[in-house]
Amino acid sequence: MTSTNTSTALANRGVPAEIDGPANPLRVVWRAIATIWSVPKARIGVVLLGAFIALAVFAPLIAPYSATDNSFGRSEDMSAAHWLGTTAAGQDVLSQIIWGARVSVFVGFAAGIFATLIAVLVGLSWGYIRTVAGDVINFVVNLFLVIPALPLMIVIAAYLQNGGIGMIILVVVITGWASGARVLRSQTQSLRSRDFVTAAVFSGESPGRVVFREILPNMTSLIVTNFFAAATAAILAEAGLEFLGLGDTTIVSWGTMLFWAQNSNALLTGQWIVLFAPGLCISLLATSLSLINFGVDGLSNPRLREGASR
Amino acid sequence: MKHLRGRITRTALAVIGVTAVLATSACSIDVKNKANNDAPASDGSLLVAADNGSPTFEKNFNPFSPSKRVATTYMYEPLQVINTLDGKATPFLATGNTLPDAQTVVYDIRTGVKWSDGTAFTAADVAFTFNLIKATPALDVQGAWQHIKSLEVKDDTVVFHLKAEDVPAVAIINQQLIVPEHIWKDVKDPLTFTNEEPVASGPYVLDKFSPNEYTLKKNKDYWQADKVAVDKLVLPAANSQLDVVNNGYDWAYAFMTDVEGTWVNADKQHNSYWFPPGGTIALLPNLTKAPFNDLDFREGLSFALDRDKIAVDAEQGYVEAAGQSGLLLPNQEEWLSEDLPNSGAIGQDTEKALAAFEKAGYTKKGDKLVDKAGKQLKITITTANGYTDWLQGLQTVQAQLGKLGIDVKLSQPQPAAYYKALNNGDFDIAITGFGGTGSVFEDFNRLLNSEFATPVGTSTTANFQRFTDPKVDALLADLKAATGEEEQKQIAAELQGVVYEQLPVISMFYGGLWGLYSDKNFTGWPTEDNAYAPPNTWNSTPLLILTNLKKAS
Amino acid sequence: MRFVLNKVGLLALTLWAAITLNFLLPRLMPGSPADAALAKLAQNGPVSPATKAAVEAQLGVPTGSMWEQYLSYLGSVARFDFGVSYTFFPQSVAGLVTAALPWTIILVGLVTIIAFIFGTLLGVLAAWKRGTWLDTLPTVGGTFASAFPYFWTALLLVFFLGYVGGWFPTSGAFSRSATPEFSLAFVGDALYHAILPATTILITSLGGWILGMRSTMINTLGEDYVTFAEANGLRPRTVALRYAARNAILPNLTSFGLALGAVVGGSLLVERVFAYPGVGYLLYTAVTNQDYPLMQALFLIITISVLLANFIVDILYGILDPRTRR
Known about the structure:
The structure holds three protein chains of three kinds.
Chain A (H helix, E strand, L loop, with lengths): L1 H11 L12 H14 L1 H18 L1 H4 L30 H36 L3 H15 L2 H11 L4 H29 L2 H8 L4 H9 L4 H24 L10 H10 L8 H29 L10
Helix pairs in contact in A: 1-2, 2-13, 3-5, 3-13, 5-6, 5-8, 5-11, 5-13, 6-8, 7-8, 8-11, 9-10, 11-12, 11-13, 12-13
Chain B lengths: L1 H24 L19 E5 L22 H4 L4 E3 L6 E3 L2 E8 L2 E6 L13 H13 L12 E7 L2 E6 L6 H6 L6 H4 L19 E7 L2 E6 L13 E5 L4 H6 L4 E3 L6 H7 L4 E4 L2 E9 L9 H10 L2 H9 L34 H10 L3 E3 L2 E3 L7 E5 L5 H16 L3 E5 L3 H10 L4 E6 L5 H9 L21 H12 L3 H18 L3 E7 L2 E4 L3 E2 L17 H6 L3 E2 L2
Helix pairs in contact in B: 8-10, 9-11, 13-14, 14-15
Chain C lengths: L1 H27 L4 H11 L5 H11 L6 H13 L14 H36 L4 H14 L3 H15 L19 H38 L2 H8 L4 H26 L6 H7 L4 H10 L3 H29 L6
Helix pairs in contact in C: 1-13, 2-3, 5-6, 5-8, 5-10, 5-13, 6-8, 7-8, 7-11, 8-10, 9-10, 10-13, 11-12, 12-13
């Protein structure tokens, strides 16, 4: 998201249009949206994501009860009063699902943005420079890539006890930026040898300018893809950590709902919906992001555009 | 290509839609009861969920090892087994004990007992065991040699000379598992010895061992073999609650959500449960820190709590709210002081709470409780991550104190870090369990003895709140030396008064022992009416149960 | 040659850093192994002061300064001697790991290979039959399935197929009374127990391979040489499989190599739900019990397998595609 803004902002300041550079920023954004929307899968993704964001934003208005109110009967079946029944602690499941959307959507976007930012900064500079510094970065990125992510997350989460959502975002960012950086680096490497970059270098532009003004705008779709992938990973990682009980189990999120459902043996009491519904929401939210990616792919690579004949 | 899009959208929607419909349309599924699929019905064996593999079993039957297989204590016997519910001792390898004075204990060792390899058991084995744990202190898990000065064998008795007048030491000596000298004298490193072929004196010997399950069979030469009705014990490594409910277990120790709807419902005719209190769950204020060192403040907290609601929310109504006597009730009812109003129970009283807080310097301003500078009162309660019943109780505490205008935060470090924080006094107020050793002296001693109140930052193992009172120390010393029951009760009553008035802990509810039984194959399980043993599957108390069960007719 | 030497140097350096990090990470966790063991004991009843002293003495909790611990750690890593586990005292770490490794390697390894083969084939098909239901079903289905949280899929399978249906065992790698051995009966039993965990991993990982292969395949199908082959009148099937798929598979082979490297550490959640006696479950146990020696050994094995897979893929890629050598 940020990267899209950066590229348009740069264009605003009148950077001369490059080979495939943008002409009118507004038109570019519009064209991007139109391209994404024109892909049916992406369209479903946008609608789904929009629905979840609406759920998160308007939770106080939509939810029938408070998510933490435990004054209802325990492990009740579905009824008119409780569409999805109640939990073993006597909370309304539907209200928890609605309020829980806030955490997942927030964690997904926040972790996605931070991980992408780091990936862009590291990936682009790493791909461009050919000095010793490049080797150092290579070393650091490789290190982060080979350390097993989930165990690392568990150790960090155990260390930063009950930092809550902030902690989970931090953990996901720490373990999630490296793969994006690697992808962006190889793209940078291949763009580095293109004519327009060579031209910019010979015209005396500073390396920073070359990287962030010449190369970056050409990688917009890759960066957006990376963002959605990072956000998806973040949502799943958050759920996994909370399921293992390593998050703050007092907040209401889909992950903690699953933790409590498993903990109170929702399956045994026949309350399988308490286990099913939050997991389905996590999957649908993650799916919506992946579906949008189908449209983003088509932005830079017309071949991947749906419906385009080869 | 336009026509394709419609189709793609439809297919995509269908995939998502089907799943979504599944999610919203179906009602809760009635689970078929497949009880006793695996269960050996009448071959005289007993299926017990006692030992959990992680996820499989490592072979270790060393009775001194903390990571030993649980059933090790079904094979090795102590001198006497103490029912932790009421502190009563049942003789096993000893036939009884006498105290000529408060500094000497004499055990009469049972004769005619054979080890499972046929060798005779003698008083020398007892002496050998105690000398072994003296030579290797890491084996002395009970800390017996902190009480014993020396011991000697006289015919069929073993005489223990204690370091001081120390009646409660009997309880500790009682519990030591006795090993055969003729085997263990040749063990090079008893610490790392895994004892794969255990030779023991108890009712069972090892039968088959595999990574997912092991079985014990009845020791035919057991000295009270006529009391042992179960021919074979089966201990699987996987005992998830699903397994326990479905596979027809005879005995399990597990907290079960909605126990009526799950465990009992699986076999209404035979399945029952018994959840006696096994300890008191309490808030532990750090008495070295303000404002928790202020009695008025603690009184405010105590009156602010609705303990019944906390008990219900934490353990789903399976346990009772705890009184402030420091005793485990009803187990220790005969020790209860008559001076305590309402048997020590304290009800919620918001007005009294606010009055007490005012004395402590906190007044109500709007909907907030503020200090003299006008800042809202904030407290952080420490608990361990993953102890979900405690957490649910604390969330209710949070809500109740929140109503008074106190901002309550919960800190949930991992169990190891939580335990370290308690040890080092690195907390403001924490939740913890106390009591339940079966010995009134031990319970009060660990709760109140200033000997444990090391400075904050240094590690201790009891009295984490760092309570110090020379008068209480004197009472504890008296209780330790007291041999007469009346005298003991009188001192215990005074100690209860201390806990009630000075609030070194704020008791909330009794933690349960979650025993699940089926009387399909065997009867005679301990119950509320016949509380001869707690329902737990670990330590030596299962020996009481295994020698009491009868075949169901 | 310089290219390879460079890579080897980097490998060694990364290895050292990973080993050092393995040393530091567990020690960053609050609370000591004895605290963890005691907290567990305290769950079963009050812990006496003597117990604490005894447990600490038994575990031989690390002594000496951090630097001394580090040096002795490096020494033991070099000797592949990981000492004794705290949780399973007195079992040796090496024994525990060798017992757990085969389960994970066989289960996750096989499933990864199956998922790769099926996913790639489906991806080729999807790209080739672009826009038809043969494309939409695998892509949308794959996208959706790969968004399932691992543990959730596992729990649902346990519930519906294992518990309600009663068709499959819900936990463990073999029957309760079975002892691991090389017999037909035991292998059959183990396979039966592997079905649900394998299905879980398959469901959640298939989508990635489908989508990856599909997108590279689509790119390749647009290349000039493919168009040229088509123009030459070759049968579409020949073009798709012989020309396009063979080239498109290269980047996916990279991912496959990395996925194989990640096999050892990749199934913690699944193994946890199914109580499968593999490396993931062992690691979970080690982490929650602050079992330094076990954690270090497992982290090391997981890291080394990923590192080696990375290294091999890098070298192979350098040989197959000279452009990346710079």
